[in-house]
Structure formats: structure tokens, C-alpha cells
Amino acid sequence: MTFINRRAVTTTSRSSISPLTSFTSLGSLTSLPLTWILSGSPTLAAAEQDAGANAPAPTTTPALRTSAAPPAADVDPARDQTITVMASLNHARNQISASLGATSYDLSAAQIANQSQGADAPFSQVLLRLPGVAQDQYGQVHVRGEHANLQFRINGVLLPEGLITFGQEIDTHVVGDVSYDTGSLPAQYGLRTAGVVDITTRSGAFDPGGTVSVYGGSNQTGRAALSYGSTIGRWDAYASAGILHSELGIDNPTSSPTAIHDTTDQYRGFLYLSYLIDASSRLSLIASSAGDRFEIPDNPGQVSAYIVAGAAPPDSAQLDSRQDQNNSYEVLAYQKSVGDATVQVAPYLRQSHLVYRPDEDGELAFNGAASAIDRSALTLGAQLDATLPLDDAHTLRAGAAWSLTDAAIDCATAVFPVNPDGTQASTTPETITADSRLHGSFYSLYVQDEWHLTPQWTINDGLRFDAVTGYDQQLQVSPRLNTTYQLRPSTTVHAGYARYFTPPPLEAVSQETVATFAGTSNAAPTTANAPVSSERANYVDAGITQSLGSHAQVGLDGYYKRATDQLDEGQFGSAIILSPFNYREGRIMGAELTGTYQDAGWTAFANGAVSQALGTQINSAQFLFGADELAYTQSHRVYLDHDQRWTASAGVSYTLPCRLSLGLDSLYGSGLRDGFANTGELPSYATANLSLRQTWHALEARFDIVNICDRVYEIRDGSGIGVAAPSYGPRRGYFGGVSYRF
Q1: Is 0.90 topped by the overall pTM?
Q2: Residue 347 burial (CB < 10 Å; 0-12/13-18/19+)?
Q3: At residue 265, what are phi and psi to the nearest 5 degrees?
Q4: What are the structural domain ranges in the chain?
Q5: What is the spatial distance between Cα 362 and Cα 225, in angstroms, rounded to a whole number?
Q6: Could you give the C-alpha distances from 200 to 180, 282, 330, 343, in angstroms and in order?
Q7: pLDDT 10s digits, 452-491
Q8: Which CATH architecture has domain 4-741?
Q9: 8 A C-beta contact, residue 524 and residue 512
Q10: Which residue from 118, 16, 121, 25 is spatially nearest to 67, judged by alpha carbons?
């Protein structure tokens, strides 16, 4: 897999894509002048001919596609005209999204296919191959020392958060390409600002035909998927569905090759529909549904701390706790282009539901509490984005967004009464109900100007306004300033400043009352419970990208962030549910070194990153912490639990003329924090993965080995601020599968 830093390719916006990452089938289509399509005078066929005549010659070996182009006999002129218009509208939509000044990378589906497990890998594994991305338990990833704080977009439209790790929700099979921006982001991007992951989905226009695939291997893993895409008249459609079964659904809490009580069954469904209203406008629908059923893995050998009336002492290897998650979203986008101006309006709906069912007797015996939790969130919102070139030197972009969220928590917790000294007063549990409802909203406005002072020097300045209501009422006006300068054709430097405003995820904020559990085995260690606040930060970033001929490039980037009310999240309890809290002050800094190479069938990448993330004085949701750790943070600057000093990833692949691809990739981490108040550090680890892929016309087979050396490595040991359970990375696994295109 090869990722490309767009800085080396363009000094403007995402509209210019490196040939290393573009689909070869788009060829002339992506270079189609908008004036031909939007003026209404030339025919679509003439426009297409003009695009082909003016298409630039490829400057390097293009990335391999995952599917072959249709035979020449199947070419339909009417379909080609439809595809031409769609490609032009895609180009116009990309003009809306400005990445100038940010650190930016692109990944194509073909490049994802070259990594271990390819499209059958969880999407979080795809993100781990990007610079400065560190892995955590349960599929979480951390970008540049931040806990989560990632923003996901589908075809440029913001997706609200759900009660799930997004890397487990998105089906990698539907990904056409990925644009990833981090650093000092333009004013268009707010709220979640550690990074922006914009996924362009597959479509029937550019991925016609169907694919059926099966894939499986170690841990009784089995996956089946079916997808189909086509264009009919002005319609463009793509649909995908898949099911997954595995005996390693959640990270193993032990170092053994197999986990105990860790079965998962999952389904994914995805639909993309687009209708061309005319040559300058279209209406698109994106719908996705995901359902997960998890057994909570057991950790044998644990010693119970409480006695349950009428129940024998439990075996910690025989507990039966479970968690179910269901998420869906629907996006309806209307896009209109007039001349060089483009506007897109996109209302969206997001539903999220999580249910945790405890092993009541077992969790009472080991933890003194067993909570049956039902959480749900419904979000309705809309996004408006527009771009307007004013003249040759200025391009104006502006937009607005709003969302309304209704979050509900129903929680019934079985506990024991305790004596004043904390000892168990009765073996008969009692149930305490603690339900809450939270209604909140987000409102955002932005405006920015892309100013080309000279052909080499560009400035992007902007202003953003954000307001949040619900758990609190807060707002902020945030200036942004980025600049890019091309020293010479092969060398580009950039620098930027951003003021950030980051509210906690509304659906994760708990309204729990500390007094509810006073005098029980679930009493909070401290009584303070200040509300969680929005984080406010100043962020600076600077870097340089150097092309080394036409086949390689390297980049160096550094960043520094200073925050008040630094947000963090932790797991407090058996349910895999994260709760936010604040540090009064936070400081994050680091640097990234990247390199890529592609030539004559070879692709390679290497990333190295150093980061430090610190916080002081926990000042919200204090009841979640022990009194000793809470007191320690009041007078000491502590490492955030997701701080990892060194992170690296690398990979190389080669495709032979017989269409056999061989790939090797690896990950390295110096270890997350552990121990009292995060004063310790887990051991470092390095893993390597191997992949083989052979294509025969419509049939493709692949074989993958994950963790070739069977390295035992610990992601979490169960200690540290906000860490509830140990987690180990997967042991060596063998996987294989076949897919057939029709």
C-alpha cells in the first residue's frame, strides 16, 4: 500500500489528486473542464471528447485496480456520457473541500488491497498504516496523541458519532478511496479536529458489475460479501452486504492464542444511489446499517470479592456478559453547479443503539455491581457547503451545519449494601435504577478565502463559529490561517495556525448522580462530579515535502497543541462504553517522517512518528477516579493514557506480470501508558504481516498471514487512568479467500 502526501502534488485543494493514487479508469474524465458540462451549449459527447484530448499523460505507474475494465464490446455511449457528467460533478464536489495548509494523504481501494487482509481488514487497520496513528484496544485508533477526536465524512458529508467504534462500523469493501487530513485544518473542519477521514464510496459508474467473495481462517473467522453496481439511464447505483462470524470479536484479555467466550456475529449493509437531474445537478442517497453481537471475553483465574446469596462462587472463565450494537445512517445530498460555483446541501439522520447484558451473579461476585445498560441516540442534522471562485487569485468557501441529538440512558444496577467501613453488609443484592435523558444541539458557520498571492505562494484564511447546547451551553469563534509555498517544483513547505473548539460526544455524556449509589458496593470513590466541558485549543503545524524524482517522495511535519479542558475518555466498568472527562490543561506535541515509493510494479511506504501527550488536574467527572489518582493529577502533569512515544508503520508490495502480488507490512509501537496515574509504560512491540494475491480475469484469490512471528504483545494491562480491562493483540493467524466478479 502506498499513501501519497498531496502537498508534493498540489498547492491548492483536494481537487488535484496524485496520479499515484487516482483510478486509471477515470483518466480523462477527472480532467473534464466544468465549463463544458455546465454551460449547456456543448453536448456531453463533445465534452467527453474534449476531456480525452486534453487529458495529461500519466507521470508514473498508476496503482493497480482491484477489477478489470469492461470489454470494449460492452461500451455504451449513453453510459459513457453519464459517467462523464458524474466525474465532472465529483470534481466540482471535491472543489468544496479545502485541505490547503493541512497535512494530507490519499489512499485508493487498490492500495488498500495490497495491505494484509485487504478489503477484509477492519477499517481501523487501514488507518493504522497512516502516519502518526497509534492502535488501542477495541479497534480504537489515536491520531497525533489525541483520544479519538476523529471526524468521518462520506462523500464530503459529515457523519455524526454513534455508540460504536467507527472502525468496526464501516465496511472496507465499500471504500473507493480515502482522503486523510490532519494538522492545522482549514475553517471548514470543526468539532472533531485530530484528523478528517473523508471516504469516497464505490459507485456503479466507476465500479460496474458485481462481486461475491468469501474469506476466513483462524479463530473460526468467516466472512461472506456480495456487492453490485450499475448505471441505468441517469441512475447510478451501488449496493453491498456482508456477514461476519469470529471467535475473536473483542481483544483477548489473556496472552493465549484463543480467547474464552469471545464470539461475534456482525452484518453490514450499504446503499449508494445517485440521480442526474441535469448536466449540472444531482441527488444522491447514502444509507448504511451495521449490527454487532459480542460476547464479552472472560479472564480466567480471577478472585471474587463478594458473596452472592444462593449462588456458588463463580468461575471467571465461565461468565456470560454480552453487548449488542446497532448503528445506521442516511444521507441525502443535493449538489448544484453554476459556472465555477458549486453548492451542496445534505440532510442526514443517524440512529445508534447499544445494549449491555451482564452476567449478574458473576459481576456482583467480582465487582460488587452488575449494570444492565440500554443506551440510544438519535441525531438529525444538515450540512451546507459552497465554493465560489471570485477571480484568478481568490476562491471563497462558506458553509453551515447543525444537528439535534436525543440521547437516552436506561441503567439498572444490582449492588450490595455496605457498612461504613466498606465491607459487605448483606449478600442479597438490591437494584438501583439510574435513567437519564439528554437533548443537545450543535451549530456551526464558517467562511474562508483561498488567496493565490503568486503561482507559488497560497494563503488560506478563515473564521469559524461553533455553539453547543445540552450538557452545557458553550460557543467559540475560531480563526484559522494556513499558507503553502512551493520553493521549487519538487519542494513544498507549509505552516498553519488553528483555534479549535471540541465538545465532548453528546451521546457519551453521563448524567449519573453520585449520591445514587452512596452506601453501596458501587459507591464512587470521590463525590465531586463537575460537568464535562468543551475543549479549547491553540494548534500550530509546519512541514516540508520533497519529491525525489517521479517515483518517490519524503515529508517531515511537526505540530504543537496547547489546550484548556483537554478532553480524554476512559472505560469505567465492564461494559465497553467510553465516558469523557477533562484535564484542566493539556499539551500535545510531536513530529512525523514519511516516505513513499512506486515504480514498475513496486510500491512501498514507511512512517515514523514521535509524540508526547500530557494533562494536569482532572476537573470533571471526578467520581470516576480513585482519590489517590485524582489527587496526584492535581499537582503533577501526567501522561494521557493513550500517549505512545514512538509509532511506526511500513510496507512493500510487488506485482509480477502474471498478476501475482506479494506484500509485507509491519507496525511498531513503543507502548501505551499504564500503572498508577499513567506513570508506567507498556513494553514495545513490532508485528509483521504477509499477503499473497493472484488474479485470473474475473477470479481473485488471496492468502494472508497476520503476526507472522506470533509475537505476544500487550495493548493494555488493565491499569492506568480510565482503563478497565487488559487487552492483547491477535496472535499469528492464517486467512484466505476468493472473490469473483460478474
Answers
A1: no
A2: middle
A3: -130, 130
A4: 4-741
A5: 37
A6: 11, 16, 15, 18
A7: 999 999 999 999 999 999 878 899 999 999 999 999 999 9
A8: Beta Barrel (2.40)
A9: no
A10: 25
